[in-house]
Task: structure prediction
Amino acid sequence: MVNKGFPEGFLWGSASAAYQIEGAHDVDGKGLSNWDTFVRIPGKTFQATTGDKAVDHYNRYQEDIQLMAEMGLKAYRFSISWPRVIPKGTGEVNELGLQFYDNVINECLAHGIVPMVTMYHWDLPQALEVAYGGWENRQIVDDFEQYAKTIIKRYGDRVKYWITMNEQSIFTGLGWQSAMHPPGKKDDDNMFYQVNHHAHLAHAKAVLALKKLFPEAKVGASHAHYPAYAFDCKPENNIARMNLEDFRNYWWMDVYAFGRYPKRAFKHLQDHGMAPEMDEGDLDLLKKAASQIDFMGVNYYQTAVAEENAADGIKANMEANSSEAKGKTHGVPSLYKSPANPHLGQTDWGWTIDPVGLRVCCRDITSRYDLPIVISENGLGAFDKKEADGRIRDPYRIDYIKTHVEQMKLAIDEGSEIWAYCTWSFTDLLSWLNGYQKRYGFVFVDREEAEDSGTLDRFKKDSYYWYQHVIKTNGVDLDFDVSSLLARVD
Ligand code: BG6
Result:
């Protein structure tokens, strides 16, 4: 029997990340992050945009949370900036930084919004990069644990949902394989797997610390789920699909859920001298943490196509998440290559639009791991415009979210236990590599690429009112026509 609407208590949410919204990059004792440094390297970001000011959430968090409350948002996922609370990455904590997140959390709770905290959304204290190469050095596992314990102790009485890592596969791939994120290394596959092992250990230590201090808390990691379809029914293309899943999805999710690496992928790395170095006890630690996670976090944007790729075939890694991916086939020689999907459209930045893919993610996770799911990101980056009448008409975003929500509902009907759906993002924010012109929010922020280009004032887009109605009806009515309402508002 299929019900209309979503389960009672379903968390309709929205998400953000510290570097992309806060600004205030050097005030109140905050230390610099790897991103504060990286964006200053010429040519690294679109029109040299930075998060120095971002959308000034540091000073406008009350206004932003007020807008969330007015919308009826049930959950707000945000990240804590490690260098804001521990400026040098280790050692002394910054009370003013801790107070900022106290304020954000308390403000959410005062409005009945469930805070969902991401511990690491890519802004590493630059001091650790300088001291020992950041994620490259195993020392980071202990330093991350100290950071995690600091924030758990401080906020654990009020925060129930925790996400340890945001998209480990993406920050490591773009950081060590394609030089698009800090530390800007290219084709360093060995180090790619080594830093991932360190990040897995850091995640595991954080899970154990949280569960020891707050056993009732709910914890998981957010994986950039990238499901693959075989190009066609040629058997070799299905093997390519399995390879892609192992090397883009299960390398992370199997560790979070089972505490082990996928066997075929590990064997491949051993055969090629690329397997990460492990200490005795590492696998036990990963297993112990895996037995304590509560959900799988899913950031879903697009699916891939997999086709066989010769040993001397196409190479170019991890270009998802950048404007440069558009129309390009990328791959890993002898494992897979990934051409465009002729059945699906793309966003203006070349990301495949595939609502059914979200259902594929949920089905896959439910069958493979039998874990509840938190959809921690899903959304559309677009060139929104504020029109002369003051409205920001974004029917394409409404359509994108609607079609994804419909597929999520089908997944629930098919047996997936989904706790939350967080859109990316609530306000417009900085796209790491694509500046401020790639807008994701329900709330338009008046700024462009240049630091002093706008007032930073907030304006509700059409999609704001649409999502408000979806939340009000708990997902029963996805066909709400905002124009009728906005004619009255205007
Ligand atoms: C996810 C990240 O990969 O995608 C976000 O967790 C990011 O931080 C989002 O902003 C959209 O990516 P982009 O490149 O369009 O900003």
